[in-house]
User: Fold LysR family transcriptional regulator from Tistrella mobilis.
Amino acid sequence: MAAPVNLDVDLLRTLVTVADAGGFSRAADRLLRNQSTISLQIKRLEDRVGAVLLERGPRHVRLTGEGQVIVDYARRILALNDELMDRVRQPEIAGLVRLGAPEDFATSHLPGVLARFAQEHPAVGLEVTCDLTLNLFDRFAAGDLDLALVKREPSAPLLGTRVWREPLVWVAAERGVAMRQGPLPLAVSPAPCVYRKRATDALDAAGRPWRIAYTCGALTGTHAAVRAGLGVTVLPKDMVPADLVMLDEETGLPGLADTEMALLVAADIGPPAQRLREYVIRELERGRGEGTTG
Assistant:
């Protein structure tokens, strides 16, 4: 079995800088080195990987096919390297952070983010409160939360930092529920609820009669009612259980505007809450970049 070949992170950084700067001299300026050193480092990297990485012309420097592949990997390696170094250079932080979030978001996208944060910051305690958005607003205003993830209308005045956006969809146990005669039965959370209001406003605008058939403050209760065929509900597209059906326009239901999630931050938060704020924004942004609707 062949011994593993290790690449020097410094050489990878030089290659990425040359690619971004478009030449050796500008890369040398950015890295505070002379041009001959940059050339030598590129040659060492090419020898290490056994491939020509740059095409050198009198007026240009371009990546070869192999060079482009290695640059793509190098960016990911450097990002992890820099993240690691930022982490180990920072002093250990400790304390309690009080975070509020809607139940649907807290049980889908948030657990993985908080688990990774807890692993990186074991001395920080997390106190997570799940509630309706308007109740979270009240608790945040009362000073009971350091950070709060809240649902908001995309067209609303700027409130907090937007960290998530995705489509809302109608959901039922089967398509026929939406095509029955009479008012559309809805299974929703109690008022005030952003999704409930979104559903009723859309139906009113479309002239479609509706009635509240089932009300439950817990997401699991709403899912159970929908599974039993008691009504139709509204959920973010990524949060639809596999055993439920998303209803399309052919069922006669009106379209729904996207939902947004914003992060509210209390004034004068301490280092633990500030670190969690930065972590949540970065991780949710990364999640959108990996294919989640945002």
